[in-house]
Description:
Blueprint: E1 11-13, E2 18-26, E3 32-39, E4 49-55, E5 66-67, E6 76-83, E7 89-95, E8 111-117, E9 128-130, H1 136-139, E10 150-151, E11 157-159, E12 162-172, E13 176-185, E14 200-202, E15 218-225, E16 231-237, E17 243-247, E18 258-259, E19 276-279, E20 285-289, E21 303-311, E22 314-317, E23 321-324, E24 334-341, E25 344-350, E26 355-359, H2 362-370, E27 382-386, E28 395-397, E29 409-418, E30 426-429, E31 437-443, E32 447-453, E33 458-462, E34 473-481, E35 486-491, E36 494-495, E37 507-508, E38 530-533, E39 539-547, H3 553-564
Antiparallel strand pairs: 1-26, 2-3, 3-4, 4-5, 6-7, 7-8, 8-9, 10-12, 11-12, 12-13, 13-14, 15-16, 16-17, 17-18, 19-20, 20-21, 21-22, 21-23, 24-25, 25-26, 27-39, 28-38, 29-34, 29-39, 30-31, 30-38, 31-32, 32-33, 34-35, 35-36, 35-37
Amino acid sequence: MADPRNIRTGLEIxxxxxxxxxxxTKLANGQWLCSLxxxxxxxxxxxxxxxxxxxxxxxHTWSELVPLEDPTGPESCYxxxxxxxxxxxxxxxNYNGNNFRxxxxxxxxxxxxxxxxxxxxxxxxxxxxxxxxxxxxxHGNTFNGEVQLFWCVSHAVTVGDDLFIAFSKMKTYVQENNxxxxxxxxxxxxxxxxxxxxxxxxxxxxxxxxxxxxxxxxEEHNIVPLSDGSLYCMYxxxxxxxxxxxxxxxxxxxxxxxxxxxxxxxxxxxxxACPMMWRTSNGKYLFWFHNNATGGWGCRNPVWLAxxxxxxxxxxxxxxxxxxxxxxxxxxxxxxxxxxxxxxxxFFHTQKSIARVVKADxxxxxxxxxxxxxxxxxxxxLCLELGSAEPACDVAELECSPxxxxxxxxxxxxxxxxxxxxxxxxxxxxxxxxxxxxRISVGAxxxxxxxxxxxxxxxxxxxxxGLIEVGREHSVxxxxxxxxxxxxxxxxxxxxxxxxxxxxxxxxxxxxxxxxNSGPYKRVLNESGKVRLAPDLNGELLSLRxxxxxxxxxxxxxxxxxxxx
Length: 565
């Protein structure tokens, strides 16, 4: 398990059974404090409570989980910790203060409250309630305003002396007809007396951050501050896309929500999963999402990460990289947090029954932030390179034998021009007589297709339709990643995401396609040791690079730019 993207390399955090939102902050004494929601039963079950635990060794060990509320009392859930300049640590959370019994579950409702500690989490204050004014969403809710319906996933952020916490109200229980709101406090950073702390609910008026065109579910609003003091908000929908909005006046008013886009203009995709953002200490941004447009609660494995830099008063987002995965395709992860320490980035997440902290592969983060300007051919892992200056040949020797059982991979990066797009034309063929190996060909609907087999199992994947044109030079890269068992395609420097025609631009392949190089189940990918070049291509194969590892999206983009010079 050498792959740092594999979450099973991480360290577990103590929970009871169900667990959610393992959010973390660094205390004044250097310890980490993690607050999370947990319960002996399932999500939303009676007995849900907020607990806190401490680590003095960067997550290797944790103190016993301490409940902030009685697990046998009214439910408490969905907490957010925050440390003030004085060292006081607050934990904000939902509390079912009236012990209201919902029709399906009894969390995501009640009061917004907090407790605080002035001794690094050893002892905690009594509970304090933040007044939440009634708005149109509350008056017409499922319970006719008898109780307010809401929950919070956003981290608390500061702009000057102001603290902001975003959350989502809902009109229909559970989790329908939602809208975003923000609490602002102008003095919680400096005021020690809870009775004198001021709170204001924003935006002004009766309606929160929402646009009806994006449907009923508009929820899990979270915010990051921009360098000019503006607030950038991202939230999830069931449209298959995350949605963003910006406030230039301290959360009092917000721009009309719109689908979030990469810097190249393409729409981002994510299902109904927490779309979390962070502003890092270097002034840049990270966005955690899942890069598919399924729209439902599933498909949370793998995690994709985009990097952001400020440009023209907003965030310009890079194309994404696979960042975390569970070897079991069906086990997703979500509700993440991030803490930076000693130049390292530690990410927290939950799988609803296990919470972990995983040290990030900084190489990925740096590549995301530098992607916009990256140019140059990657040499690491390069097994075969044929350029336009090479003499024409029909067959090339290939020394390449990645072991997918050990999470290795393969990248085939080439430039090609088509004189026709008749399906079935072979661009590259590495297959042995047994059928083991890979083939790249022209697919249906003007696509490029990869087929791969280990003799016992096989898979294929195609680029998005409509990207390949006759008579035009294209760069294409297939990245077969043996860690998360995924195939992605980058065409002309753009990562395929399915476009408007399919929810995924990348795919999973069977973990039983193993390509091991030794042992009783030996199945060598490069059994032939050769690759046939354009045997029946109506066009021209202009260049080729084959790597015995997965390349980052950012590396492929840099290759593409270098080839275009």
